[in-house]
Amino acid sequence: MKIDRFPEALRSRILPVPSGDYGYQCLECGGEFGIDELLYTCPGCGSVLMIRDRDWNRLKALPGSVWREIFDYRSMLTNPALRGIYRYHELIGSVIPLDSIIYLGEGHTPVIAAGEILRDWAGIPFYFKNDGQNPSASFKDRGMASAFSYLNYLIRNRGLQDVLAICASTGDTSASAALYASYLGDQVKSAVLLPRGRVTPQQLGQPLGSGAKVIEIPGVFDDCMKVVEHLSEHYCVALMNSKNAWRILGQESYSYEIAQWFEYDVSDLAVVVPIGNAGNITAVLQGFLKLHDLQIISSLPVVFGVQSEHANPVYLYYLESRPERRRYRPVTVRPSVAQAAMIGNPVSMPRVMRLVDQYRRVAGEEAFQVVEVTEQEIMDAMLLANRHGHIACTQGGECLAGLHRAFREKRVGAGKTAVLDATAHALKFAVFQEKYFSGSLEPEFEVVPKKELQNTPLCVETPDEIPNPAKSRDLQPEDYAKFVEYASKTVAGLLDLKSRS
Fold this sequence. Notes:
The protein is an alpha/beta fold. It is 38% helix and 13% strand. Among the domains are: 111-134 and 261-453, Rossmann fold; 458-501, no CATH class.
């Protein structure tokens, strides 16, 4: 739709121009730093950073109703820079000009309602938000669109050169970082560090296909992350993990899209998110808080974070109800089918602590909760969801298992509607489905396949007297007809079909 067909009062606001005064802010010591260079931790105390718009209050000059109109009318544009997460330009990266924004089709992923069987099983109506339909097939593209748009801005406007984008990953981050780096061509090279033997073949193939240098490290994700952190502190690299505050900024778009999908009424929503490195849960909380501060939404939804009992440091932290007695302790992870959540020492934990306190001050103690689930529950829930029309990954299964448990424990009321984060496409985790179906999951996963959820191919075998096209493609018509007749009768028997005669 052309801008000249929009209401006249809105036309000048539809195409945003750079604005705001952005800076890094340390969550520990409160130090503030400019964004003209890449920073990942505070130069003073070493804590993680958040990005703050120091001129944020300028956005409050417009009422929430006008912001809703701006975002809704932008959704009708074909301008690539505003088709993705930067539909919410003023909330995500308003200092970045539109010509520096990278758009590969990320964002605005569909919200799919669960059918009656799944709804009854979970206990309340719910939707999956299919972030596996982002270009690299995971939610990580939201953050990468932001981080690489900022890199592109520095390259084009600040003379940044010889950029090596590097990340540690359990699979999805590496696929996304490699994809966005490859789009920038020779301006940015990429390298990814993966835990050897702990990434699915599908996820390993993605960064290789995008041309990244893939380096496998012995250990788990936390070990890869320590190596990458050391590199970012001692070498000239662009860190692309969620320690990069621009990543968090882009992932806030998940909250904005949910609000827009539900026409900015989120009062009865429960948003369920898996917790891995804690960047996504941080972004979700921050996104809703921003919308509320600008009166774009009138209340905050309940947010549930979900962790497997095999990797549960955030759950254990909030298990203590008295804030003064909470002590954060990293955990040693055990193998998890929800690989993206298999992190024992989340980088963004300081952000979580700060934002949960802020979220609860606004909406009450019950507005943020953490649920723990078993590996068995994760796998069973993923397979159950996908058997009823969804394309959820193991992390999506983790969310569904978390919702099911939260309802059983009366932590979410019957009057709520839930939105579950399916963080990646089911095909990325097909190896776990295959092992479940074949009964070959390693014992350390602690998953026992349920017969009602297993599914394996049925095979038509032909006896010697029946012609077989697999052995010879030169069958005579009468021989081929014999094969078709035999195979058809066998298939009809397997499917219990009734004859028309």
